Amino acid sequence: MKKIFILLLIITLSSYVFSQKKANHLPSVDIKTIDGKTVNPNTFSNDGKPVIISFCATWCHPCIKELNAIAEVYDDWQEETGVKLIAVFIDDIRNSAKIGPYVNGKAWDYDIYLDANNDFKRAMNVGLIPHVFLLNDKMEVIWQHNSYSEGDEIELYKLVKKISEGKNINDNTDLNKNE
Amino acid sequence: MNNILKYRNYIKLYIALFLLLSPLSPFIITKIYTQNIDKGEVHGNFQTDCQYYEPDSMIGAPDVPEKFLMNGFANINYTNGKFSAGIRYESYLNALQGFDPRYKGTGIPYRYVSFTGDEIEITAGNFYEQFGNGLLFRSYEQRNLGYDNAIDGFRIKLKPYKGITLKALVGKQRFFFDKGPGIIRGADGEFYLNDIFKKLSDKKTQIILGASAVSKFQEDIDPIYILPENVAAFATRINIINGKINFMTEYAYKINDPSSVNKFIYKPGQALLVNTSYSKKGLGISLGAKYVDNMDFRSDRTATGNTLNINFIPPLNKQHSYALAAMYPYAVQPNGEAGFQGEIVYNIKKKSKIGGKYGTNIIINYSIANNIDKTKLPDSTYMGYESNFLCIGNEKYFQDVNIEINKKINKKFKLILSYLNMIYNKNIIQGLAGYRTIYANVGILDLTYKIKPMHALQFELQHLSTKQDYGDWAMGMIQYTMAPHWFFSILDQYNYGNPDTKKQIHYYNVSCGYIKKTTRIALGYGKQRKGIICVGGVCRNVPASNGITLSISSSF
After folding, report:
1. Which of B31, B277, B366, B459 is best to mutate for the A interface (most A CBs within 10 A)?
2. Which residues of chain A neighbour B18 with C-beta distances below 8 Å?
3. pLDDT tens readout for residues B83-105
4. What is the pLDDT of residue B98?
């Protein structure tokens, strides 16, 4: 009986572990490059530097505004932190063929992927867009944000900097004071 | 019995521990299990939209006996290594106006378990899938429009060799809280030749081939007609990429499939889609064309509307999202249409004469959809009509010429200017009779003024002019955003050109919202004009309404 009791205790405890565990790895689904090649997001990497994943669509004005705003400062961001932005377009097949030329025409330097049937979106539990994920060097999601207002990119970059400096993103102490 | 008594203390202790642990569990877990033990992840998201309806006969808002309506859903997904499982709970108490009232009550219409290995993936339960461009098969969801044709059944995905993906599935389609009567069987193969053949691996030209087959079974219980119980359809596709050039085409063919939508004719269907593009940094050009003849394909031959579609015929036109530009959205005519679209995106470099200090971006888009050339046959042939492949008719269904200029003026101001010229065949697109074709011009100005780095004012001015339908509209909007948490907006759509002077109404709306990380709460009050809302490929009609709306969404 003692054994049964211990077993029950282990089961109870481990069930808590299952339900409370907070790791955030990228799921295994199929998405496409603009050249039609199939890619699994769980192979994303950026040489130990942070990654931003932005779920967006060509018909979503706030999404395009956000990508435009980041594009202006993207060179600086990359230089300072090595961050990479991955834009995942959830447009359906009606726009799929237009996204490559669209992104090129916008002169953006992002990595672009197509999620035409929203498998990646669903696996990431994205509802409304734009939806931005921030990933650390281990490709774990450590922060996410929904919707875009002018200036949100400033907040995002503060967090990118913290990660690239190896700090906890919840550490609110002033960066300058720490240095 | 004695044994139980003997160990009663253990049982008590266990229960006590269980009760104690429940509220404390987060703390205990963070204390004991701070190391990353890969024991699975639970994620999910939810959204709920409520509206309180006020009667308003002026704008033609229908009376809502419940006064208050609510839509909601919650997704929960569990992943542990190669294993994953999930459910979606949905509730419609009752469904919001504009949603199909057959969404009624609550339930768990979506649940699945799945195993994903390196070479094999098996899903049992509900899933979404698309073969190629979807001309033959696409199951998908648009939660905010109430569209969902998820398959309930089995799917297997194989990657036996680098560059090869094979899929096979069997199942029934979701029909509100029920399932459609037909059974769908399908298979698809995609072959990335440069990965498969070593000789091609370092070639600049990349080729992807694909082929699919789908068949549906539905019993024939019709007392008069002999209806095909098995309907098969086939498609093949190719994608060739050479540096800046991308060419893609897919052809689909369906054997005779008499249905309510095609008025029970026995003619086979076919569709062709071609897309090609050229792009380099700063310039993108894309061209698309399609020909569709009798390609409505559903798992119930009597189904109509946005239900039980097996395939997806993509509309070839720009998806507008500014309110007045989205007034007349196109909807594909699967019984027969031919369409073309061209788009140029050009970036004028910064610090150039025309580009200005920050550069300027221009998008020009043109699209047209016509009928296909059909010759009617006597009813006795049951073929309905005759058509020659790629022969386009003279009746215009839709046309849209538009230009969008995107420019940052200085550190404080950003500007988007847009102009559209549209032709909209209301009878065909909305399936009505007796209406005139609408010719509309729309102008849009979207100006953002940055007050402080995180505070901005956005102004939108829009105007739509037409001599048909409800006449001219004007719209103004001011939005104040305080990143990263708050927004406030006020807008008015004024139908000042309505030929019926009593219906020259202001549709005003005020709203505010709070956002924190992935949680968004939005509260609004005002009038909603009658119209069509489109997201992705589907649209729904929304009746006029007046009232308070509350929307909450979050994910974790």
Report:
1. B277
2. 12
3. 999 999 999 999 999 899 999 99
4. 87
The interface predicted TM-score (ipTM) is 0.90
Task: For residue B12, count CB atoms less than 10 angstroms from its CB and return exposed for 0-12, middle for 13-18, buried for 19 or more.
Answer: exposed
Query: Do the Cβ atoms of B484 and A149 come within 8 Å?
Result: yes
Do the Cβ atoms of B512 and B522 come closer than 8 Å?
Answer: yes
Amino acid at residue number B185 = R
For residues A93 and B314, the answer to whether their CB atoms sit within 8 Å is yes
The alpha-carbon gap from B33 to the nearest alpha carbon of chain A, in Å, equals: 8
Q: Give residue B163's identity as a one-letter amino acid code.
A: G
Cα B467 from Cα B437, distance rounded (Å): 10
Residue B354 has pLDDT above 90, yes or no: no
Tokens at B324, concatenated: 């007045």
Q: Please check whether residue A13 touches B, CB under 8 A.
A: yes
Q: Using a CB–CB cutoff of 8 Å, tell me whether A101 touches chain B.
A: yes
* Strands annotated E in B433-485: 438-452, 455-466, 473-482
Mean pLDDT of B507-522: 92
Closest CA to B142 of A130, A91, A32, A34: A91
The whole model's pTM is what? 0.89
Residue A20 DSSP class = H
Q: Give how far B503 is from chain A: nearest CA, Å.
A: 31
Measure CA A49 to chain center: 13
Question: Min CA distance, B76 vs chain A (Å)?
Answer: 9
Kindly state the average pLDDT of the residues B2-12: 59
**Looking at A115-119, B56-60, B541-545, which range is the least confident one?**
B541-545
Q: Least CA distance to A156: which residue of chain B?
A: B484
d(CA A135, CA A103): 23
Tell me if chain A has a CB within 8 Å of the CB of B380: no
Residue A179 has pLDDT above 60, yes or no: no
Taking the Cβ of residue A3 and every Cβ of chain B, the question of whether any pair is shorter than 8 Å is answered with no
The Cα A83–Cα B405 span in angstroms is 29
Burial group, residue B532, by CB count within 10 angstroms (0-12, 13-18, 19+)? middle
Given CB atoms, is A11 within the 8 Å cutoff of chain B? Answer: no
SS3 breakdown of chain A: % helix, strand, coil, rounded to 5? Answer: 45, 20, 35
| Higher pLDDT among residues B539 and B257, named by residue | B257
* Structure tokens given for B178: 């029920």
The predicted pLDDT at position B145 comes to 86
Q: State both tokens at B242.
A: 């050479």
* Nearest residue of B to residue A58, measured between CA atoms: B319
Tell me the residues of chain B between 468 and 507 that have a Cβ less than 8 Å away from chain A.
481-484, 487
Question: How much is the pLDDT for B506?
Answer: 94
**A60 contact residues in B (CB cutoff 8 A):** 321
Say whether B129 and A150 touch across the interface (CB within 8 A).
Answer: no
Q: Tell me what the mean pLDDT of segment B262-288 comes to.
A: 95
Q: What is the pLDDT of residue B195?
A: 94
| Residue closest to B400 by CA, chosen among B316, B289, B285 | B316
Tell whether the model's pLDDT for residue A22 goes beyond 80.
Answer: no
Which residue in chain A is spatially nearest to B286 when comparing CA positions? A98
Residue B60 — very low, low, confident or very high, per pLDDT cuts 50/70/90?
A: confident
B435 close to B427: Cβ distance less than 8 angstroms: yes
